[in-house]
């Protein structure tokens, strides 16, 4: 069975890092696969991926160390099972509100006796030394993160983190801010809730993660105590690099 190096690094107490891919380009995903990130987050929730392009992209990760992790569209067993059968080495499940929903994600992600994942998938024998090897060892190598994106979720944070099988509880800061503002809150409330996640991580031993918008934010969240850092994306790289080029070219017009 292929070793999930990102998961092993996380379990050893170190920080793992990786970008987010939203454009449905298997060729771009392949290029990023060879750059050396701990993980590459392929975003099926908000990205442009179809099942076909996602399946193609995951095939490009069979021979590299970076772990392909898919954010699924929702906490639905068939979808989670499907992306794992395609070869994902982990899943990110959005909008988990309480421990019961976290347990549902665990059941969908792992084979018995931990969960109810069904055995199948033509690519799995390439990840293990045959399908039987994969079935025997996948529970030890598959990564599961659940996202907390509301005040309600963070009010239940310790219970969520104590669910066996959860590797990371990941803060979705954008949706969290939307929820906070909808209830009359502000930046200070956001900071308070984010710190509560860090405190719960220290209390439970379950790692916490953060989606970072800038390099400075990534540095700050690492220092704060987050061990799963998502920073940068294909969209962001294109936007920033081409905007910089455009500014240079426009300066020649003066």
Helix/strand layout:
Layout: H1 5-11, E1 16-21, H2 26-33, E2 39-43, H3 51-59, E3 67-71, H4 77-86, E4 90-93, H5 99-109, H6 124-127, H7 131-141, E5 143-148, H8 151-155, H9 157-161, E6 168-171, H10 173-182, H11 187-204, E7 207-212, H12 215-224, E8 228-233, H13 234-251
Parallel strand pairs: 1-2, 1-8, 2-3, 3-4, 4-5, 5-6, 6-7, 7-8
Helix pairs in contact: 2-3, 4-5, 10-11
Task: Please give a structural write-up.
The protein is an alpha/beta fold and 254 residues long. It has a single domain, classed as Alpha-Beta Barrel (TIM Barrel), CATH 3.20.20.60. It is built from 13 helices and eight strands. The chain has helices at 5-11, 26-33, 51-59, 77-86, 99-109, 124-127, 131-141, 151-155, 157-161, 173-182, 187-204, 215-224, 234-251; strands spanning 16-21, 39-43, 67-71, 90-93, 143-148, 168-171, 207-212, 228-233. It has an eight-stranded parallel beta barrel, surrounded by seven helices. Strand 7 (207-212), helix 12 (215-224) and strand 8 form a beta-alpha-beta unit. Helix 2 runs parallel beside helix 3 and helix 10 crosses helix 11 (187-204). The mean pLDDT is 97.
CATH class: Alpha Beta
The percentage helix is: 40-55%
Q: How much of the polypeptide forms β-strand, as a percent range?
A: 15-25%
What is the number of strand segments? 8
Distance between the termini: 60 Å
What CATH architecture would you give?
Alpha-Beta Barrel
According to CATH, the fold-level topology is TIM Barrel
Mind telling me the C-alpha Rg? 18 Å
Structural class of the helices, strands and pairings?
alpha/beta
Report the mean per-residue pLDDT as an integer. Answer: 97
Envelope shape: globular
CATH homologous superfamily heading: Phosphoenolpyruvate-binding domains
